[in-house]
Amino acid sequence: MKHTKRSLLGGLIKKTSLALIAGTFVLSATIAQADIRPAVVYDIAGKNDQSFNEAVFVGITKYMNDTGIAVTELEPTNAAQVEQSLKKLASRGYEPIVAVGFAMANAVQAAAEAYPDTKFTLIDMVVGLPNVQNVLYKEHEGSFLVGVLAAMNSETGTVGFVGGMDIPLISRFECGYKQGVNWQDSSMNVLANMTGSTPAAFGNPSKGGELTRTQIQNGADVVYAAAGGTGSGVYQAAADAGVLAIGVDSNQNWMQPGTMLTSMLKRVGEAAYDSYDAANNGTWEAGFRILGLAEGGVGWALDEHNRDMITAEMEARVNEARDAIIAGDIVVHDYMADNSCPI
Amino acid sequence: MTRDTRLAWINGLMLPLLNVLTAFAAIAIVFVFINVDPIEAAKIVIHGTLGYEEGVGYTLYYATNFVFTGLAVAVAFHAGLFNIGGEGQAYVGGLGVALAVLAFDPSISPWVVIPASIMGSLLFGALWAIVPGYLQAYRGSHIVITTIMFNFIASALMVYMCVHVLREVGQMNPQSKMFPETAWLPFIHDIFAGIGYKIAPSPLNLSIVLALLFSLLVWIFLWHTRWGYAIRATGKNTTAAVYGGIKPKKVIILTMCISGALAGLVAVNELLGYQHRLMLDFQYGYGFGGIAVALMGRNHPAGILVAALLFGMLYQGGMELAFELPNVSRHIVVVMQGLVILFCGALEYIYKPRLVRFLAPIEASE
Predict the structure, then answer these.
(1) What's the number of domains chain A is made of?
(2) Contact: A77, B334; criterion CB under 8 Å
């Protein structure tokens, strides 16, 4: 970080004096703005899980590069440390503090009660306190879109879904995906499995690979993983068998180029970024931020790794679905609204 | 000083000290490699663990867990049993706590609920250890194998209980509902506030008194009762113990019961004292840490208290380091703990031959 800034400045000095003046201006403006001390506490999976936490990490790195404001990052190793980390950050005057993942709700509740003047941003779960901002995503809408793509790419008429931990949040991905598949082609068959019933299910690539192989044997030729770190096993198994896979949370298209059809983006990094940015501008608000397709909170990834796999027809069809969802012509059922899926 | 007392000093005090210092030196080398000033790191650890009230609270809170698991391993060691199932026994102890607490109506007095749930942790911890004990005593299955396997069974059982039985409707985390406040062990900071002293809040709770009490009880039990004598005699020489009228099979089962019950007390500190709900993996690492604590503490309660304090400092100090120094990730903290366990556990006698030659030569007159 520091190094980049220095070399950047060095480059500016070599150029014209006008640029130097501009550079100094930007730099001094950054220093003047640096009145917030943002922090983040990652989930037990750690910030390099290539999926959910990493999406936050990428957003935060971008924030640091854009603003020059340092963000303090903590990776707790056990549940007691999550609460300790949050409280410690609050007691040292850090805010806003971003807590990553539904499993932190209890810890955020305790910390936010102990430090009622500190701003907390909780991703994926709800804590109803006046100093907590809850960021929730309409994962079912993003999953709907990748479901459409899966159905268009399947030749066998069967597609798969591998979830992480068996909780309503992950069933929401599954249900959205099934609806998307069904909307595209109602004769399609969807195989769905969950990896486990504890948070460890988000970090079990070998089990993810096994489930995927079983689904492939049963005819699936596109497999969507909503399983955090378990996903890498799913993509590997799909690549080994030469079938397509769909990533989740981060853009994971690069992980198995050629067999990664796309990734369902859940822009948690932007949530962290926006939270810091809003706190810096004084516009941070407690309460709910519910981000769907209309807000750009979820979406699908199209980059150099899958550009050749997505035909113009597919792109048009997905965009059609996206516009219809935003316009309200398609209502994607939210599994968590009634804990059931119509399909 | 006779040769025997000198040997006792070497074994009991000098070796552990030297081992710890070697571990610290190794950690310092690791720090130099990752561009961290070891002196600065040491300052942070000492300040973070002993330098301010909240840090001390956390250190003692972590140490409490290590006292319980350390005692558990030590009691089994005295009977010649290597109980590496502290992890599972502590975990299932948590089930005992939760079932006891949730069985009572929230309006019932803490004077009933808390002792009952402590009994629950002792009972369930003991029950989890009794099966490997029985298999060792009557079926000859090796205790190391059975206890470690029981850790996995415990894990599966607890996942089932947390996910399918005790989880509240609408809750995504696999955990029980919150315990009513009548079942909470008082925090030390609340007790101090009650008598007029204000100290910083921390998870430190009354369990630490329980830890000290059980250290004393274990000492009395092992060295001042007939049962304790039977345990030590069996551990030293089973054949001689049989000749003395001791029945090793019963001793093994009794020892495992006590060992498991002590490990189960981790749940009292974690659940009744701090988390106030049953959750997954609350015992994570303490059961295995207890083995190192017992080794370093020479299986004596006094030594275990000191070793547990050191491990408490490592846990809390590691957290502080990760907080203060961006170069120290949580993995480096595990490396630190690993080095201490390596030098104090696996290589514990590395200096012994040299020390004995140097300090306790055989005197011709003796």
Answers:
(1) 3
(2) yes
